[in-house]
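Task: complex structure prediction.
Instruction: return structure tokens for all chains below.
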Amino acid sequence: MFGTHDIPLSFETENIQLNIQKQNGCFIYQRKCNDEEEEKTLLAKSPTILINPVEPINKPKEITNYLLIDIDTSVIIEPRSTHKLFLTFPVAIGVFIKRARDYDVLDIFTLASQKYTLYGDQQRGVICRYWESKAYSSPPDVDLLHLGVVELSIKNTTERWVPVSKAVFNAYGMRIYYSSEQVSMKASMEILSENTAETEFSSSPLKKEMKKSLELYTVRKLSVLSSTFTMADGI
Amino acid sequence: MILDKVIYDKVTVFNLIMILAVFVAAIIISRMIAFYARRTLKGKVEQDTLEIVIKIITYGLVSVAVFYGLTVLGINLSGLMVAGGVVGVIIGFASQGIIGNLISGIFLIIERPIKIGDQVNIDNHTGYVEDIRIISTTIRTYDGLYVRIPNQNIFTSSIINYVNHIVRRFEYIVGIRYSDDADNAIKIIKAVIEKHPFALKTPKPQVFVDNFGDNSVNILVRVWSPISEWFSVKMELLLQIKKALEAEGIEIAFPQRVVWFGNRDDEANKETGC
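Output:
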């Protein structure tokens, strides 16, 4: 499903139906995902469509740019060391329409469950998209239309054993890569103290053959001031 | 030439036209700056901050024009200040309210307990803050009324700002029948809350039997939600809870009275001791 397509096009999986067909001189976009349906009319000559995974923070409504991954069993990191682990993250699928050299968002949908949470206190905290994941020692085998894999490199700069039970990321810095088998990201977490850490995404794919996704913040031409996130309210 | 005609002292018609032109130019320039600032910075800068900056620019430009006019008219500002000492006392008494509102307005802008667009309750007026001016603040109530409140009133009354924090809690009391399984009801309500995206995971929702009412077992439901979604979540969840409970055969209790007829049934009399 992911990649660039000419229209008319049609995809059908167990939970997703996506069609763009020509009708009476215009194109009709129809999408069904679980119980959610979307229909749009495209007035264009011969548009090109790009479908790829995007930041999972837009459904059912964009209210935040943070993603919190809750690790179901706490991971304890030894002092002065760097370790890698793999987590899952929810995949959101973005449908873009090409206009000259620019892309515009046509639709966003997801098969993953949607839940939000508060990180920090009620005054200075942030609302985050919530996702619960197991911690894996190697990339888990998951359905790429539903889940992605994030390789998290955790660096403990302290002199103590530090338990890590969650990771909060700034989605404006997400670098998502995809292939026909997997959706992935690479991220790092630097533990600064027992309660503080800094997270960031890195711009390299998990596997060489993976393609870079077109992210929403790039399409919307948002000026991103910082792509890191400082977790100051617990890790 | 008519332009060189002296009106009084050294002030000519040309001077008056210049004063008028500078004043009009100051207003036009400030309007243009406000227009372009609103158009280009909308969505990039907080509306509240934007309006304050626009006001500072507007008042600044108008003040410059006024000082220019006074200087051209030959009015000595230091002399004005001395005269102002006497006149000021008189004006001060006459305009106590206005000065109070003005100072309150300045403090409101500095302290910022409310911002433009906030949902507030001030002096029992609930609605959206439309504008914070130097003398008064305007509110658009939820039913669309325009309310102008003098800043002094705002400054001295208690303000409830509904959107100051990023999350807000709401609660329901769900009364079920005594014959229904309260444990099961709690489980169903928790499942409904868990399913709603904007019923926050943390702070955790609370669902528990709060009290035994006259006609129902009262279950208290407390849910936190992002402030932007608070009202829609509150509306949606209650109906979803009702539907989910009814689907499992649990009914919302209503007031009822059981009447026993004591002299008809001997067995019943024995049991009840009547």
